[in-house]
């Protein structure tokens, strides 16, 4: 398993240290775009972390499941209202063979590609969310 750079100390301050990425001016266009792409399907987030994208996407009615290497980041997600609607698997998304989740996702997205500016978020979200994903064993 790869080295986890998002331990307890990072998870404890992540949301505050990345406050600019939580700004609705940055976040809302990406979430709206991903919600439109997902339609009635489920979305898979690679690197779900504390739920910056997953929580508002779930609030818009999209079924979301994520995978993250950091137990501490997912624990922070679990502390937030609405987190009970989101599935999360702890593991490396490059090597984890199967998640306890629907096996078919209409779209997948990566938090790194939906985090900089509104226009960048929409452009990069298009690149990663352009094709259906099937998680297989």
Number of self-contained structural domains: 1
- Alpha-carbon distance between the termini? 17 Å
- Give the overall form: globular
Computed over alpha carbons, the radius of gyration is 14 Å
CATH topology assignment: Rossmann fold
Structural classification: alpha/beta
If you had to describe this structure to a student in words, what would you say it looks like?
This protein is of the alpha/beta class and 137 residues long. It has helices at 8-17, 19-22, 24-38, 54-59, 71-78, 118-128, and strands at residues 42-46, 63-68, 87-90, 104-105, 107-110, 133-134. Strand 1, helix 4 and strand 2 form a beta-alpha-beta unit. The radius of gyration is 14 Å and the shape is globular. The relative contact order is 0.21.
Overview in brief:
By secondary structure, the protein is an alpha/beta fold. The protein has a single domain (8-134), classed as 3-Layer(aba) Sandwich (Rossmann fold), CATH 3.40.50.150.
Keywords:
6 helices, globular, four-stranded parallel beta sheet, alpha/beta, 137 residues, Rossmann fold, 39% helix, disordered C terminus, two-stranded antiparallel sheet, single chain, 17% strand
Q: Mind sketching the topology for me?
A:
Elements: H1 8-17, H2 19-22, H3 24-38, E1 42-46, H4 54-59, E2 63-68, H5 71-78, E3 87-90, E4 104-105, E5 107-110, H6 118-128, E6 133-134
Parallel strand pairs: 1-2, 1-5, 2-3
Antiparallel strand pairs: 4-6
């Amino acid at each position: 398993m790869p080295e986890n750079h998002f331990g307890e100390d990072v998870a404890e301050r992540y949301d505050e240290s990345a406050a600019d990425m939580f700004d609705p001016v940055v976040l809302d266009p990406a979430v709206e775009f991903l919600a439109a792409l997902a339609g009635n399907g489920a979305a898979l987030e690679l690197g779900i972390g504390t739920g910056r994208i997953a929580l508002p996407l779930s609030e818009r009615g999209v079924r979301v499941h994520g995978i993250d290497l950091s137990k501490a980041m997912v624990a922070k997600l679990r502390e937030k209202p609405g987190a009970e609607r989101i599935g999360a698997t702890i593991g490396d998304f490059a090597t984890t063979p199967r998640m306890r989740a629907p096996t078919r996702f209409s779209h997948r997205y990566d938090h790194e590609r939906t985090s900089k500016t509104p226009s960048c978020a929409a452009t990069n979200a298009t690149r990663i969310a352009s094709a259906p994903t099937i998680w297989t064993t």
